[in-house]
Amino acid sequence: MIPENKKAAVSHALQVTFGVHEFDDLRELTAGLSSALVFKMTVLGKPYLLRIITRTDAMADPANEYACMKAAADVGIAPYVWYTSVGDRIAITDFIAAKPFELNDAKVKIPALLRKLHALPPFPFRMDYIDKIGEFIEKFQTAEIMPADMTASVFDLYKKIKDIYPRNAEDLVACHNDLKPENTLFDGERVWLVDWEAAFLNDRYVDLAIAANFVVRSDEDEAAFLKAYFGEEASEYQQARFFLMRQLLHLFYFIVFMLVGKTQDRIIDFNMPKPGFREFHDRIWAGEISLAEMDARLQYALLHRDQLLDNMQTKRLKDSLELMSRAQ
Q1: How many domains does the chain contain in total?
Q2: Other C-beta atoms within 10 Å of 94: how many?
Q3: Degrees, nearest 5: CA angle 276-279-281
């Protein structure tokens, strides 16, 4: 299971870390969309996580990933790090035996976890997240996946938000940026964040918006979620930023999952049957839907588009845009 060109590096890691050259057992973990190879590895009777980075593009930066992971591990929100090698692109950490994470618990524990994460010393800056969404829009348009009239309104909204959304230094914090359920592990007592490949300095509302897709089901949930994070009732300004970032995330997920779900020999049914937005996320949370499946990716993309189109008809969007425009 370990690539031939990585076997010597893994053997070296085992020798340096545990004083042995071989593991007792190895099982590949296939959940998630990361290109990294991830294994549950048993060494001297104890389980560990072995992660081997396979990407070589600009976004695959093991130095950044390991630095962010270690910083989080130092404050107890990522598993203990036993070994890393930037050159070999290998990391060994504690293995977290995940247990069911009830949403009622997650609504309380996740915002508290994010407060701790965002209080870390700033991670390295890698990109402007909002500008990066614009780059993906250009890729989407070049790919001609959908008729332009089906996306014109949402791309116009992106421009409106981009022009007025604050880029405040105080809101640029250490962010994970990929808070999907398989990266948010609950051991029965504590929550752990894993897979730090996408971590960098980013707007705090990105992490909040990603987590909200799974744990915020109502206006009451949102108020409690933001209060748990900020330590007090969220202001109108904070609520508006949160809402606008959620719309940007709907747009981002729509574009990205259309791009990764499209294949050359497939005609996309833009009206394909799919669960509702809330049901779909509940089923992802429960492990019943995997976004590794092409149909699920396309459904996920279209669900985010539909949710965005619905939200564009609300008074809250108009009010949030006006408030952000006045706040500039």
Answers
A1: 2
A2: 16
A3: 105
For the segment 196-236, what is each residue's pLDDT rounded down to a tens digit?
999 999 999 999 999 999 999 999 999 999 999 999 999 99
Burial class (CB in 10 A: 0-12, 13-18, 19+), 79: buried
Residue 263 confidence class, pLDDT cut points 50, 70, 90? low
Backbone dihedral region of 195: left (phi > 0), alpha (psi from -120 to 50 degrees) or beta?
A: left
Looking at the chain, list the stretches that DSSP marks H as alpha helix, in order from N- to C-terminal side.
7-18, 62-74, 103-118, 129-143, 152-164, 204-215, 219-230, 236-261, 277-285, 294-311, 315-327
- CATH number for the domain that contains residue 50: 3.30.200.20
3-state secondary structure 24-43: CEEEECCCCCCCCEEEEEEE
Residue 188 backbone zone (phi > 0: left; psi -120 to 50: alpha; other: beta): left
Cα–Cα distance, 284 to 50 (Å, whole number): 24
The answer on 135 and 172 residing in a single domain is yes
In this model, does residue 264 exceed pLDDT 70? Answer: no
Last residue of a domain, one of 32, 64, 94: 94
pTM above 0.85, yes or no: yes
Please tell me the distance from the alpha carbon of residue 65 to that of residue 161, in angstroms, as a whole number: 30
Mean pLDDT rounded to a whole number for the chain: 94
Domain that holds residue 9: 4-94
